[in-house]
Automatic annotation (TrEMBL):
Gene Ontology, cellular component aspect: neuron projection membrane
Organism annotation: Musca domestica (House fly)
Record-level GO BP terms: synapse organization
Record InterPro entries: Ig-like_dom, Ig-like_dom_sf, Ig-like_fold, Ig_sub, Ig_sub2, Ig_V-set, Zig-8
Residue ranges occupied by any Ig-like domain in the UniProt entry: 86-173, 176-279
UniProt KW Cytoplasm keyword: no
Statement: the UniProt record of this protein carries the keyword Cell division: no
Protein's gene: LOC101900846
Keyword terms, alphabetized: Receptor
Protein name, UniProt field: Receptor-type tyrosine-protein phosphatase S
Amino acid sequence: MYERVNLRFLLWRFHFFTFIAVLCENSHEMLLEYMTMLFIFGLTTLQLERSRISAQAMKMLTNDTSVSSLHDINNMILGSYDQQEPEFENTTNRDVIGAVGTTARLHCRVRNLGDRAVSWIRKRDLHILTIGIMTYTNDQRFLARHIDNSDEWVLKIVSVQPRDAGIYECQVSTEPKISQAYKLTVVTSKAQILSNRELFVQSGSDINLTCIAPQAPGPYTHMLWYKDSELINDSTRGGIRVVSEQQMKTSNLVISRVTHTDSGNYTCAADNSNSDSVFVHIINSEKHAAMQHELATRLHVPHSLLLILTIFYILERVIK
């Protein structure tokens, strides 16, 4: 309030001087000289945005010294004092759950930030983790993420550990400072594909995989399937069916009439859980028969060897 009254006093003097200057021969130069003095003694402590507005006022004076221009300058300078203070947007999730080994993200949105800075602070030890997009911790798992011209400031925690659980604060460098608390809960959860780590599927038959995540936090769990890091959906190719029960925390993947191009690494990913993978080999019937014959041959034991082993066993019993 004191700044605004002081500014109005300066503007009153400015208008009075303008009236006198218009009567002089060199009124244009005198106006510029007085505006320079005004900026030096009256506006040097204002914010950068207000300085920019004042610079626009100077430009207007060099082009027009009419009363309407002076009125516009008055409104521009006083309007800079009407800017809103920074405030948090309360639409983000402030209770975040992260599984051990996964990546957790805390999203903070601040409106009307202006030239203030956003910091992330760990509450338990008051350690400053980030300021702006700069990281101020030796733990390289903590990163700051921000998209230019957006209101969102994200704290990214890579490879979450149980010790990361706790309260984090998103803080804005106003005077006094304002902050908003976020809670990170760390759980141990892993998706599980109910099959061997390697599967051999005959060409032309179906792949049928079931994934569960019983320990995933929350009442509902979203589950996705990937083949070699590429998301599997109905548009990948025909003959694909994915049936997920979010409340039961299960998902079933069926791929009909498989070919050799369906060989690869299949991954099940669940919310707030570590993923699980199996490798599927697609083989033709002849190769499958050959593999079965080779396995049987490796396991075949000659009768003569069995006879020798039996004799040695009997002798050992007799000696005892």
